[in-house]
Amino acid sequence: MKHQFKLILSSFFISAFVYGQAPRPTSLDYSDVSMLGRQYVKQAADIKGSPYINKVFGHGKVVNVADNVFLRYNAHNDVFEFISPKNDTLVLNKTDAYGEIEFTGTKINYRLVNYTNKDGNSTRGYLVHLHQKNDFVLYKKQKINYSAARPAVSSYAADLPPEYTLAADVFYFKNKGQDIIEFPTNKKGLVKLYPERKEAIEAFLKQNKIDFNSEADLTKLIDFLAG
Q1: Average pLDDT rounded to a whole number, residues 55-78
Q2: More confident site: 87 or 52
């Protein structure tokens, strides 16, 4: 695996990183971990489940990086981990310089973006880029929750260990010039966003029987909104 990485960092890349300019594609450099990532902290062995969407590292491409990288997504901490030439696991810095990541096998594409959750809180993190038509973009958020250890509720029950559990995907979308917001979960919420298109939206939803929890159906809905 060591031979799949080059230990090169061009002077242009250093200046581009420092002065905020977009860097050219470059090979990953591990001589300064703080530039690229930080040391990974191994999870405790007694935790059930996994913080990863996929435990196995997969081939990936990172924007502005020429090398193929072995990556995995930690959906609990919302970070990407990668393998260094020394076989160390490092955590990729959350920076616009590495703000687009795609697994080459599955073609799953992640974007580091600012988005607003349903509580109105602004968040910066990774969303999966699902579909785009014109100025409309559909995303989804993958999340794995953590539950601390819980003592038995009675003498007949056993203590419960700490555990990671996969949460339901949450869909987001944006239109040109607008923030990324959570996709409405029903017709009422969608009409509230586009009251001027109320009749057209209702007719489309009735004809297509859209499921607001279905990625395929929301893709159809994005195409309709963008049309």
Answers
A1: 90
A2: 52
- Token readout for 112 is 């580091």
Element (H, E) at 217: helix 215-226
Domain ranges of the chain: 2-183, 184-227
Give the start-end residues of each E strand in 75-196.
Answer: 79-83, 89-92, 100-103, 109-116, 122-133, 136-141, 144-147, 163-166, 170-174, 180-182
Q: What confidence score (pLDDT) does residue 1 get?
A: 44
| pLDDT reading at 176 higher than 50 | yes
Which DSSP category does 155 fall into? T
| pLDDT tens track for 31-45 | 434 444 455 556 666
The DSSP bridge partners found for residue 91 are 38, 81
Other beta carbons within 10 Å of 196: 8
C-alpha–C-alpha distance, residues 193 and 16, integer Å: 40
Q: Cα(21)–Cα(66) distance, rounded to whole angstroms?
A: 17
Angle between helices 198-208 and 215-226 (to 10 degrees): 140
Q: At which residue do the structure tokens 């973006």 appear?
A: 113
